[in-house]
Amino acid sequence: MSESENEIPPVEIPLESVSEDALNEIIASFIEREGTDYGAVEASFEKKVADIRRQLQKGDTKLFFDPNTESVTFLPASQAQPRR
């Protein structure tokens, strides 16, 4: 078996199961870790937070736990896989 065959798909974390403080920390960590490319004009930290929150509210972005890396991250909703 190859390494990719042993990988477990990320599991969606329902936002209502995460406290507001924890979500704020996850968003901040994501922004600091991933960075974002806003083109020629750099966006403020507050704008980046607002953008992620807007995407979460619209359902375009979801929060996931990746058991392979034991970390949480945001992924496009299109990458959500139904649980088996």
How would you describe this protein?
With 84 residues, this protein is α+β, with helices and mostly antiparallel strands. The protein has a single domain (10-79), classed as YehU-like (Arc Repressor Mutant, subunit A, Orthogonal Bundle). The protein has helices at 20-34, 45-58; strands at residues 11-12, 61-66, 71-76. α1 (20-34) crosses α2 (45-58). The longest helix is centred in the first third of the chain and has 15 residues, at 20-34. The chain starts with 10 loop residues before the first strand and ends in an 8-residue tail after the last strand.
Provide key terms for this protein.
84 residues, alpha+beta, Arc Repressor Mutant, subunit A, 3-stranded antiparallel beta sheet, 35% helix, 17% strand
